[in-house]
Amino acid sequence: MSDTSALGIFRGVFFKPDTKYFLDLFSTPFFSNILCEKTIVYFEKVLERATEFYDLPRPKKPYQLPSILAESEVVDMISKMPNLKHKCILMTGYAGGLRVSEIVGLKIADIDSKRMMIHIRGAKGKKDRMVPLSQILLITLREYHLAYQPKVYLFENPNGGPYSVRSTQQIIQDAKQAAGIQKKGSIHMLRHSYATHLMEAGTDLRYIQELLGHNSIRTTMRYTHVSIKSLGNIQSPLDRLKWK
Length: 244
Known about the structure:
By secondary structure, this protein is mostly helical. About 50% of the residues lie in helices and about 5% in strands. The protein is globular, with a radius of gyration of 24 Å.
C-alpha cells in the first residue's frame, strides 16, 4: 500500500485515537517517516488537537554513513575508463569534491589555470565558491580540450548544452563496474571520498567545510564518522589488558 492510499485511513477519522493507535499504525511497512510527520501535523494544525500528541514520538530520519572509496579504488575507476571525457568528469568530481550539478554546470571560463582555482558558480544555496585546481587535472583537461573542443560548458552534450546529470551518473556506475567495485552510490560518492581523504590527510575541518560549501560545520563533521584512519588510531581496550 502506498503512502497516498494510506492517507485514506485518516479521512473521516474524528474520534479520539490514543497514542498506541498511532504507534501501531506508524509501525506498519507502508508508512514512511514523512507521512508519519505529516499525519501528526495534520491533527495538530488542521484539527487543532495538538494536546493529544505531546507524548507521541516523532519519527527519526534513519542515519546512514556515506559510501567512501579507498584512494586505490579512485585510481582504479579513473584509470580503467577508456573514454577521455568520462575520465575527466570523474577526475573533476573527485579533485574538487563537486556535486553532480556543479560538475555539469562548469564552464570553460570557470577553470582559472593562472590562479590554479576552479570557480563554482551558483552552487547549492545560490553561493559561489572556489576550490583548488589539481595540476594533474589541468593537464588532463588540456588534453581533453584539444580532443573535444568544447565551446561554453566544460562538458557539453552533442548540442552544445551542459552534459546531462543522468549521463554523468551513468559514468560512475560504468567506472565501478570496470574496476570491480561493489559499493553502492552515485557520483556523489566522489565528493564524500574527497572530503574523507582530505580529513585523513590532516586537513582542518573548517577548510573542508569551505571547500564543500557547507553552511554548518555539523554537516562536515559527518566525515569524522567514516574516516578509517582516525578510527584505526584508536586502540581496542582488549589490547590494553595486561595478559599473564
